[in-house]
Write a structure and sequence with these properties.
This protein folds into two domains: 89 residues, no CATH class; 131 residues, Vaccinia Virus protein VP39 (Rossmann fold, 3-Layer(aba) Sandwich). The chain is globular and about 45 Å long. Strand 1, helix 5 and strand 2 form a beta-alpha-beta unit. Strands 1, 2, 3, 4, 5, 6, 7 and 8 form an eight-stranded mixed beta sheet that branches. The protein is α/β, with parallel strands linked by helices. Helix 1 crosses helix 2. The chain has eight helices and eight strands, in the order H-H-H-H-E-H-E-H-E-E-H-E-H-E-E-E.
């Protein structure tokens, strides 16, 4: 899938915010490579039920990057995330954004993606904010092997794939993400147990799951749910530990 097409599909999710340390062309080229590998592996094992590349971009990458822009926003004007050289040549104009000084997440900030599966949202967040130290927690060995292949192909650094159950992880993290996992209600306390004091838990969930989340993790301070673009019921919910 061409990077220019990916850029256009992702505009509703990231056009208002820019990646802290990625030029747009490299970011979307990495996403293109990721999709090629995902489709190849998906023919052999069930990594995602979504098979169409365009839908993979919007449903998986769009949702993941929507979370990334809210967890790690850029505070200065940078190159427009939706403005690729290829796209400009196709459409005949750019959007007139300029690149400023990077002000992304601090180097070494720790993020854990619980039940990472095919790598969402963890790896897109890492592509958005490469300064973070990312841990992908995935108990399924074949899926963990796929995650290692993606990390190698994209030459990602400061990334750790833990082929283990979350309950066995003793580390604590500054951000923990959770998306599309089984046994959601029972995994919430485990996700919260991975948080360092003052850390954030980012959930990509259905709107109908918000009340149960508040009830289960009453000790956390929750932001208002943020509707995910192009979805009727999906939201980003971010809570902070005490």
């Amino acid at each position: 899938m061409q990077p220019a097409q990916i850029a256009e599909l992702l505009e509703p999710f990231v056009v208002q915010a820019q990646s802290p340390r990625r030029d747009a062309q490299s970011l979307f080229q990495d996403i293109s490579t990721y999709i090629d590998i995902l489709l190849r592996w998906n023919a052999k094992m069930n990594l995602t039920a979504i098979r169409q590349p365009e839908e993979i971009v919007t449903r998986h990458f769009g949702e993941s990057l929507f979370a990334a822009r809210h967890l790690f926003p850029s505070h200065v004007e940078t190159a427009a995330i939706g403005c690729l050289a290829e796209r400009s040549s196709v459409h005949g104009a750019d959007r007139g954004f300029t690149r400023g000084e990077d002000q992304g997440p601090k180097s070494g900030q720790t993020v854990a993606d619980l039940g990472s599966g095919a790598g969402f949202p963890g790896i897109p967040i890492k592509l958005w904010a490469p300064q973070i130290s990312l841990t992908l927690i995935e108990s399924n060995q074949k899926k963990a092997t796929f995650l290692r292949e993606i990390a190698r192909a994209l030459t990602l650094t400061d990334i750790n794939i833990q082929n283990a159950r979350a309950e066995t992880i003793s580390d604590r993290f500054g951000v923990v993400t959770l998306r599309a996992v089984e046994r959601f209600d029972s995994i919430l306390p485990t996700a919260a147990s991975l948080l360092a004091p003052g850390a954030r838990l980012a959930l990509l969930i259905g709107e109908d799951q918000v009340p149960a989340t508040h009830h289960t993790l009453q000790e956390m301070a929750w932001s208002d749910p943020l509707p995910i673009p192009q979805s009727q019921s999906r939201v980003l919910l971010i809570g902070q530990s005490t």
